[in-house]
Amino acid sequence: MSVAFRRESDEEHKEPRFELPIPPGPNLVTRRGLALTEAKVAELEAALAAAPEAEREDVARTLRYWRTRKATAQLAPDPAGDEAAFGTRVFFRHDAKVRTVEIVGDDEAEPAEGRIAFSAPLARALIGVAPGERARFGGRDDAIEVLSVDPLEPLI
């Protein structure tokens, strides 16, 4: 019989499942971000133990991602001074609208809730800018005016 008509199992015809991509660069986290990562690992470990066989591969894949993120997490130092930095809440004016963002790690970012990753273009434009100064963004030299900057977490 020709090999074209032979099928040993469904497994050999499945699409390969790649690992979840790890964001490039350092894995900087806030204290909140580290706690969220640890909670996610614990949640997934419990889910893996309780998962039906058909779902175990997907849960294990996600768990590998979060274990890697936990192992590589670097707690960012507290922000120094009053300029925008990792771990700060920044109040700024852009296109006549006042907005607020928190600059956090990649896994902690939730843009809809005002938390952006330090690697995001807006965060990169804001980092290093003090209140009263303007930042280049979207091709304009004075697109953003920083109004105030506060640390996210109490300084210890």
Explain what you see.
The chain has 156 residues and is of the alpha/beta class. It folds into two domains: 52 residues, no CATH class; 64 residues, Chitinase A, domain 3. It has three helices and seven strands. The strands form two sheets. A five-stranded mixed sheet has the order 5-4-3-7-6. Helix 1 packs antiparallel against helix 2. The chain is elongated and about 60 Å long. It starts with 26 loop residues before the first strand and ends in a 5-residue tail after the last strand.
Provide the structure class: alpha/beta
Mean pLDDT: 89
Tally of helical runs: 3
Strand content: 25-35%
Count of separate structural domains: 2
Unreliable residue stretches: none
Principal-axis shape: elongated
Number of strands: 7
Task: State the share of residues found in helices, binned by percent.
Answer: 25-40%
Largest beta sheet, briefly?
A: 5 strands, mixed
One letter per element, helices H and strands E, the order comes to: EHHEEEEHEE
**CA-atom Rg in angstroms:** 22 Å
CATH arch. level architecture of the largest domain: Roll
CATH fold-level name of the largest domain? Chitinase A, domain 3
Widest sheet, order of strands: 5-4-3-7-6
CATH superfamily of the largest domain: Transcription elongation factor, GreA/GreB, C-terminal domain
Name the CATH class of the largest domain: Alpha Beta
Tell me the span between the first and last alpha carbons. Answer: 74 Å
